[in-house]
Amino acid sequence: MNFIVFLKMVPDVIEELKIAGDGKSLDSDWLRMKLNECDEHAVEEAIILKEKTGGKVTVIALDAMELDDALFSALAKGADKAVKITGNLQNIHSPAVAEIYAKYLKDNCLIDNKTLILSGSQAIDDIEGEMIYFLAELLNLPVYGVVTSVSYNSDKNDLTIMKEFSGGIRGEFEVEIPSVLGIQAAENPPRYIPIAKIRAIMKTSTIEEIEIPEDGLTEKIAIDKLFESEVSGRAEMLEGSPEEISAKLIEIFTVKGII
Amino acid sequence: MATDIEGIKSVTLETIYDTPEGKLIQSCIQCGTCAGACPHGEYMDYPPRRIIKMLQHGLIEKVFETDSMLKCVNCYACMVKCPREIHLTEVILQLVKEQTIIRLPAVPPELQKALENNYRYGNPMGESGRKRANWVTTSSVPVRILSQNPEPVDVLWFVESYPSYHPRGQDTCRALAKILNALEIDFAILGNEEKSAGECGMLSYESGLAEALVDYNMSVFAKYKFNKMITTDPHALDAFNYRYKLYDFGYEAQHAILFIMQYHDRLKPLLKKTLGYSVTYHDSCCLGRHNKFYDEPRQLLQLIPGIKLVEMVHNRLNSICCGGGGGGMWLDTYFKSQNMERLSDIRVKEAIETGADILAVACPYEIPRFEDALKVAGYDKKIAVKDIVELVSESMED
Q1: So what's the pLDDT on residue A221?
Q2: Which of B261, B286, B312 is a domain's end point?
């Protein structure tokens, strides 16, 4: 099997985020980037599947700050190839990202019945997890998001997957190959890789760089304004004895029509 | 029992018998003192004695299949009791520990996060490196940060992660800044340029992480001129004096308590306030057993007017580890899942039995560990945990 995993770097919210002067982007002086958490699970799931069924894992991402660390870490975990797509890639969003990935796949990869495409099911700057759906549309492949388990059936060369829905409902699907999966959680949490191994990989492995020009992308999203959450109201602290507090609570609930 | 540190730099379990350390290991008489001294020995499939036996028989791989070495808290209890003076904690257990971490099917999540955080952010708690020196703004005295004022300085104070970020650790920082200022010491810190010294990386054991942090911190030290280095963290002290020296670190780091004690004539008149506390002192593993600084912390406590020192049943060489060393700081949940009693819970019971008002410590891990344990025991209102420098600082108030 050929596992292709698309990764994305997102702002690290450990650092304080500041809005840049244009009011539409984050101030890059304050920004540190890290691998999107769901994408870490996508890498882990791809490597688990590779360990079970054999094959090759390729990780691909658009260039970003600190991307090399994330790609080397994926190689140390067991990925076979890492690709960095460069170009003028500022301020592009899920539809255009999907177009770039589709273009890369058409030029560089054979998508056959031994190819599975994975990515994280969402990101802090793509909560709806749109990218995989745009990509699947362009590739004309089936797509499943919020996937929490994947198993390969070698007799039928297909997959049994578990997909989560809202309200605590899960659905089991039989999925043909090739297809696109948005991974919510891997079978196991992302594994620990001794730093010595990552440092060794950095010295011995290379990241393939491919330039894809931005022109011709049909960007469908533009950010008008970025702003901090506005405070709408504050919590009210109830004081008094437990009896007084419960009386006040009952009053509040009655007024609000809750009871 | 000093270790030949140059000699152990490249030792692996395969090459250990080609070293003097290997001869020591061959001399093991299997007396079992190490296993008995180990605070977690009863929970290990392979306590130190059995590890040596497995190594002698070429069966060490079997040890890696267990979590025995994950339970080692690097407390040096086995090493100081060994009649053959085998460097258990310093050499062999670390080598076994590293292989355990590498081969474990899954590293316990809290430990994994702490190690990854140390690599990415330079501190185990995963705080922003840009906030490391934020505590300075709350200091009552000026604290020079070298990146802002790179003039040569006499004393470089390596603050370390827990003192930098943990609210109670920051109390220790403010106290030490006040003491150094009162003693008119020319001191400075690295500020946001500092990253974790990496001792827990090494002893967890994760040599790649340790090397990454050593390389980084050494490159920062090279930018500045200073004569001495001090720290309040005995783990950082060990990192510098035992490991950084393998990477040409040219200083002998000093624990803040020993540094302050050099100025005891100048300090004594500054300690005007009588505290009137009964205090019991907990010997930390690194400062006590490993570096044998048993007397200096007690002498500093006794400089403070009105302090009555009482001892716990286990003290000095026999002190019981707080459970935070060797990665234990991030294994509480794992230990609990193995039905192991927390060492900090055991230790505070001894402190409670002394009837002391204060449990005095000299290691930044111990404040959160013992404060938590006292809450569990229901004694957090009756005994306060204080770093010794906090008590010194309190006595300097009018």
Answers
A1: 80
A2: B261
Q: Does B208 touch chain A (CB under 8 A)?
A: yes
Is B293 part of a structural domain of the chain? yes
What's the whole-number mean pLDDT along residues B293-315? 98
Q: DSSP letter string over B22-43?
A: HHHHHT-----HHHHH-TTGGG
Task: Tell me which chain B residues have a C-beta less than 8 angstroms from the C-beta of A189.
Answer: 106, 109
**Calpha distance A195→B201 (Å, rounded):** 10
B165 reaches A (C-beta below 8 A): no
ipTM for the whole complex: 0.85
List chain B residues with CB under 8 Å of A191. 106-107
> Where among B77, B103, B129 does a domain terminate?
B103
Instruction: Search chain A and give the residue with CA nearest B102.
Output: A194
Task: Summarize pLDDT for A191-228 with one digit per residue, the tens.
Answer: 999 888 899 999 999 999 999 877 778 877 888 999 98
Rounded distance between C-alpha atoms, residue B268 and residue B261, angstroms: 10
**Which of B106, B130, B212 is facing A195, going by the closest CB pair?**
B212
Domain check: are B126 and B245 in the same one?
yes
Residue of B107, B127, B208 with shortest CB distance to A197: B208
The confidence score (pLDDT) of residue B397 equals 86
For A195, the closest of B106, B119, B121 (CB atoms) is B119
CB-nearest to B206 from A14, A191, A195 is A195
Per-residue pLDDT band at B14 (split at 50, 70, 90) = confident
Q: Do B44 and B181 belong together in one domain?
A: no
Mean residue pLDDT across chain B = 93
What is the span of the domain harbouring residue B343? 270-395
Residue of A129, A142, A149 whose CA lies nearest to A45: A149
Q: Which residues pair with B310 in a beta bridge?
A: B280
Length of chain A: 259
pLDDT for A220: 73
**What's the CATH code of the domain at B84?**
1.10.1060.10
- Render A206-247 in DSSP notation, one character per residue: --EEEE---TT-----------PPPP---PPPP-S-HHHHHH
Contact A34 B126 (CB under 8 A): no
Inter-chain contact B208–A195, Cβ cutoff 8 Å?
Answer: yes
CATH number of the domain enclosing B332? 3.40.50
User: What structural domains does chain A harbor?
Assistant: 2-211 (3.40.50.620)
